[in-house]
Amino acid sequence: MKMVSAARTVVLFGIILQVTGFAKLLVIADFFGAGPLLDAYYLALVIPTFLTGVSSGILQTGFVPAYVASRARGADDAARTIANVTLTWTLLGLTAAAALLCLLRGTALPLLAHGIAVPTQGALLPAYTLLMWMAPLNGLADGAAMLLNAEGRFAAAASAPLLNVVVGILVLFALRDLGIYALAWSLLAGLVAQALMVLAAIRLAGLSLRPRLTLQAAPGWLLAGIALPVLISNVLGNLVPALIQMVAARAGTGSLSAMGYASRLHNSLVQAVVMSVSVILLPHFARLMAQGRAAELRLSLERVFAATLLFAAASAVLVAAGGPVLIKLLLQRGTFTADDARLVARVWLALTAGLLGTTWGIFLARLFQAQQRPWVIATLACVSVVVNAVLAMAFVSPWGVVGVAAASSLAYTLIMCLFHRRASRMLGGLVSSATGLFVARALLANAAAYATALWCRDMLQEVGPVVVIAVQFGVVAATNVLLARTAPLRLTLRAMFGS
CA-CA distance, 113 to 121, in Å (whole number)? Predict the structure, then answer.
């Protein structure tokens, strides 16, 4: 129940963060709609997002398990060395990469701008250099947050992004007349505030954190962090979203903006629950592995799979039944048109179709990270890049940006199946007969919930969209809360919502 309590805390902060994040999304939709300026903003984020994704993946694989293992053995001095050296080299490495890419903008910009509309190309140039500095700021904030999570201080790490969003919104309002500069400065200002808050939380927790450049201080964990398979898996894994963005940009003006809005809505589900829980699962899996508690590990995985299925099924039902209404209610104002709303709704649904593959794949990747088996992740990362590239290029011509989103969902589902098969061979069956029956119950119950949600939409459409969405959410939530009370989850209401 300790893990459930921690997960509840982090998910609560995650939900609050996504609610505040929606406020910023509404401001962006009102100010910029879906057009060339926002397309350029998302394109300018491709490289720095790739860099921070690679950095985050390496830290999760090399830093967190090594730090947790040192603390579990009582080697506090070694753990402090790991933290100091890791964060120092993370910040220096990302800063050097950002500076180099700024100097090489004459080479990088034509690659990003190839095949996109002229207005988007014009807006891309001023955003590129500014947004490149997102990488070191984000890397510092992420690394420090992982340290707090490894110490079990999940609330401190989860609350910092809230300040990021609030500061970003304030800057966006203050600089709204500056166009793409407003978007860039709001992002950078929010990241500075987030990094400062996480560093302050580390200091208040009594953790010693200071710059340390010595490479010889901890050779074991350093090799684990920069080993070839870790680099391969994280480079390729973060190449996939960059690839999807670049293919979506070629589907026409506004397509990348539509993908951006839909991805923001989709990722709000992933970030609020999946990524929040995954930061708990990584140190949890690492402790179980270090202590040889294989039976407890299998039980944890079975329960996590059941919870993942409920989350994915409920999300798919809600997006299919209420997504168009919600997008129209939230975003259709200012320069955001009805056509924009319809396109975003279709892309969002296509992305949600792959939610089970995305979530369970992430959790199983945490398992292999905890076991420090980077070649498993590296191999599947290679497969992921190839499958995503082939499917995205095949689907973009007949179906445009919606096809790119559907290709991503199909690819993640395939990779999830490969991860699941590999984990089952390593630990034994992850899904028992009881869980198999749970899957059948969950699918049937959510199919009934979908039909009920559609009926509610038809019956209550004259009352107003807020009521429709609230009733649909209530129907789907009640269905899945009841399912969560059955085996293998057996979660009581007190465990889910209480203390």
Answer: 6
Going by C-alpha positions, the residue among 235, 260, 275 that lies closest to residue 53 is 235
| Distance of alpha carbon 310 from the chain centroid | 18
Helix (H), strand (E) counts: the chain: 21, 0
Q: Among candidates 308, 313, 239, which has minimal Cα distance to 278?
A: 308
User: Are 84 and 218 spatial neighbours (Cβ–Cβ below 8 Å)?
Assistant: no
Instruction: Report the SS3 class of residue 336.
Output: coil
**DSSP structure string for 368-385:** HHHTT-HHHHHHHHHHHH
Count of CA atoms in the C-beta half-sphere (13 A) of 203: 7
Instruction: Record the tokens describing residue 193, joined without a space.
Output: 């505030």
The confidence score (pLDDT) of residue 416 equals 92
* DSSP one-letter code for 486: S
The string of pLDDT tens digits covering residues 207-247 is: 777 777 665 444 444 444 445 666 677 677 777 887 888 88
Burial class (CB in 10 A: 0-12, 13-18, 19+), 292: exposed
The rounded distance, in Å, linking the Cα atoms of 310 and 315 is 8
Spatial distance between the Cα atoms of 129 and 185, rounded to a whole number of angstroms = 12
The CA distance from 4 to 399, in Å, is: 41
For tokens 């080697």, the residue is: 75
**Residue 484: which residues within 8 A CB-CB, separation 6 or more?**
307, 310, 491, 496
How many of the other CB atoms lie within 10 Å of CB of 466?
11
At residue 418, the pLDDT reads 92
Distance CA 396, CA 251 (A): 7
Report the pLDDT averaged over residues 51-56: 84
Kindly report the number of other CB atoms within 10 A of residue 247's CB atom: 25
The length of the chain in residues reads: 499
